[in-house]
Amino acid sequence: MSDASQHTDFDVIVVGGGVAGIYAAHILKNKLGKNVLGIERGDGLGGTWYWNRYPGVQADTDGIVYRYSFDKETSSEWDPEARYQRGAQIRNYLTEVAARHGVDEVYRFGRAAVEARYDDAAATWRVEVEGGEAFTARYLVSAAGVFARPVFPDIPGFDDFAGEIVHSARWPEGTVLDDKKVGVVGTGSTGGQLIVAAAKVADSLTVFQRTPQYVVPAGQSRLDAAEVQEYLENFDANWAAWRATRLACGFDEPEVGAMDVTPAEREAVFERAWERGGGFEFMFGTFADLAFNRESNDAAAEFIKGKIRSIVKDPDVAERLIPSEPYAKRPASVDGYYETFNNDNVELVDVKANPIARIVPQGVELADGTVKELDTLVFATGFEAIEGAYRHFEVAGREGTRLLDQWGDAPSSYLGIATPKFPNFFTLLGPQGVFSNLPPGIEAQMDFVADLITWSDEHDEPVEVSQQVLAQWQEMCNEIANASIFSEVKSWIFGSNVHTDKPRPLFYFGGLAAFREVLDGERAKEFESFRTAS
Ligand code: NA7
User: Fold this and answer.
1) CA of 530 to the centre of ligand 1 (A)
2) Which among 321, 356, 381 is the best mutation to test ligand 1's pocket, defined by most ligand atoms within 8 Å of the CB?
3) Ligand 1 site, CB within 6 A
4) pTM of the model
5) In angstroms, what CA-CA distances link 181 with 218, 297, 321, 510?
6) Span from the CA of 462 to the centroid of ligand 1 (angstroms)
7) Residues 146-155 pLDDT 10s
8) Helix (H, G, I), strand (E, B), or coil: what is residue 92?
9) CA angle 244, 19, 35 (to 5 degrees)
10) Which residue positions in the chain have pLDDT lower than 50?
């Protein structure tokens, strides 16, 4: 921390200390030799994994690929034999990687960046943190997070509740659900994990479900020793192969469509995937077209509906758990999810049929007047994805243009990285970045940003994407996203969980391999799209 505590001017400021920020700081400091300041509002590193500490939290992407590919060694906090890592393990892993590479030293913790402003004349960024202290740098890398802004529903009576209200993403230390009357609002990936964990310890669990989800088993298991050895011995080759796939989730991505095989073959493929577990693997590792072909999507949906009916003993409860929408949200996977609704201490409330009217001192009152008594009310109601980070971090580019104004109702950044009017400002996981397993997607983006910075340094010229290039990118992203069945449902992937009437595709759905080709094309053209100034 010596640099950060003594100086206010840096080569690069990195906002955020999660998976993206740590990688950015590492590349900038250790590969480019930059003088870097990292700003993190939490008291430690980890980002999403720092904030999300709810019971049951774990990754649902395989641990062998939910990690950095540049660091083979760090593993003491990593359990290479477990298919998925728990939240605390990932947090510790990230902290340890940062320490191993000297990245923790560049961070200042505990105060959020509240404003960043581009100084046109000086061609520098000025970043202010809570409390008023300010820093300057030529480049600003925002790794402010995809899930930085949790959302609570607009329900009256929050202050009336006699018990404890928590959001899954802001879990207070010491809050336990043991022997409590617990309510959980929300049944997304988070709600699913929480529900299973809470049901095991709570006196009673009331699940307030608005839209049922398709949930397949996660398939948490132990990898065998030979698998782990193969993984470590061929670490780089494995990563090279995974990067050449669409999702880089570590499984083979088939080319055959679900309708190209017989019904019996299809059933067998789904059954094997169900047995093995994994949401992404079920959606993208069974057949090539579940996200794009309605018939194929229906087939997968019907398979999962059949599983719900066979697992859930009470047919009324089963029907309430069965989605009517296509299978087109970020795929959820939780072990024992549907089985949990067979527990005597678990009640499922359909809040579409009987909405939450208000929170009252003793619990939650429904529209029909029923009161569900609770000690702890948990909101697993998600996030304002991507854009949300900039509601408490005001970024202003050339001529004072606000980032959120520039994005408007159609947020887009070229490659998820660059926004016109924001010179030398780079978002990692900005709007319309690649939809893939996040760590390799982040590495691809940041490696590219590093090359852009090097070019800018060499030419002594700020880099800024042109409006025309962005428009073409946006059109392509929208076209692919709107052709996908994901566009038919409301979810954070389209920002429509918050901006309900204004869906916006927040990702490039062309896959990581194609995304990386676009990046290489830009490199080959010597970053032509970013040379607006020349
Ligand atoms: P999600 O996937 O956005 O899920 C939020 C859940 O909360 C979902 O079931 C929502 O139902 C529900 N919700 C939101 N508002 C309400 C209200 N007002 N009443 C009832 N239910 C509500 O967030 P997660 O945290 O689970 O997951 C986010 C990502 O984090 C995940 O995809 C991983 O990538 C990691 P709805 O479907 O909107 O009716």
Assistant:
1) 37
2) 381
3) 147, 153, 185-191, 208, 210-211, 330, 351, 380-383, 492, 497
4) 0.97
5) 27, 38, 22, 45
6) 40
7) 999 999 999 9
8) helix
9) 105
10) 1-4
